[in-house]
Amino acid sequence: MVLRPPVEPMLAQARDTVPAPGALPGELRFQPKFDGYRALVFTPWPAPGPLLIQSRRGSLMQSRFPDLMAAAAHLPDGLVLDGELIVWVEGQMSFEALQRRAVSGGRTAARLAREMPAHFIAFDLLQLDGQELLHVPYGERRAHLEELFTDRGLGAPWTLCPETTDPATTKEWLTSWTQVPGVEGLVIRGSGQRYLPGARALYKVRRRDTTETVVGAITGTVGRPQTLMLGRLDAEGVLRPVGRSTPLRPDAARDLAERLTPAGPGHPWEGVRFTTSWGSRTPLDVVLVEPELVAEVTVDTAQERGAWRHPVRFARLRLDVEVTDVPPFGARAEPASR
Prior knowledge:
Layout: E1 11-14, E2 28-34, E3 37-42, E4 52-55, H1 66-70, E5 80-89, E6 92-93, H2 95-102, H3 106-115, E7 118-128, E8 131-132, H4 138-152, E9 158-160, H5 167-175, E10 183-190, E11 200-206, E12 209-220, E13 225-233, E14 239-244, H6 250-257, E15 287-299, E16 303-304, E17 307-308, E18 313-317, E19 334-335
Parallel strand pairs: 1-11, 7-9
Antiparallel strand pairs: 2-10, 3-4, 3-5, 5-6, 5-7, 7-8, 10-11, 12-13, 12-15, 12-19, 13-14, 15-18, 16-17
């Protein structure tokens, strides 16, 4: 069977800690988790044709990335790669730039390709020389992928995802590499795993840090808060939104309900439009509260323009910390204890 888009990518389930040996079939293999767009790359087979780039949800988006299409000549025909699209700007990965590129076409896409070059980080091989490899154990697929990069002398924009089986290196990646914008944590695979399209058969561990934020609004009601809208003061002392919490535990919600005060006139978020998630346009109904409570939260490293893109986890109220003692808007968090 020759693979053609759309092909559902194999997915990962989140874990809080690195799994023990034996958690997946075969030897555990660890890779850095990059903060980009999941994508599959198809080279033509058997007839000549263009390079195809498929998003995680199955849409084709190669026209948005003319720089990758221009580099298709370096790849053999009959190839399907699974990996992550990233964009490099001013010496670091930028998710905001990647979003711009993913929605731009025509002359704008060509200009952005010059200004914000894309890279494809390959971490799995699904087809080689027109032969699908879904049934082949991951360890063998990885060996073929490494041979492909070596034999073809592949370089930018094609990048081979680093991989290790060494626990010390894994710890280094999770602690040090995640200090680099665009690296979120680890993806864990088993060397004996087949490729299972659409299945959450891999593991991912995001680095989580602990920090303080200010409670500025809630969803639900003051008597029954459901989630928290969190902020930090900028250099001018203005409270800026930085994130939204996951749903509160019942005990945390009860504790907060006893301490929340409905906002009076002049709240800094009057007129601010909140949405259900990062990048969404769906409005979210919130209740403004007096910004006087400090919440300790755990966060991942996916931060853009001073705000966390993914929901944060509420840990506890910090009644011993003043609002003015909270780290300023734009500050990064400290590693959480494990």
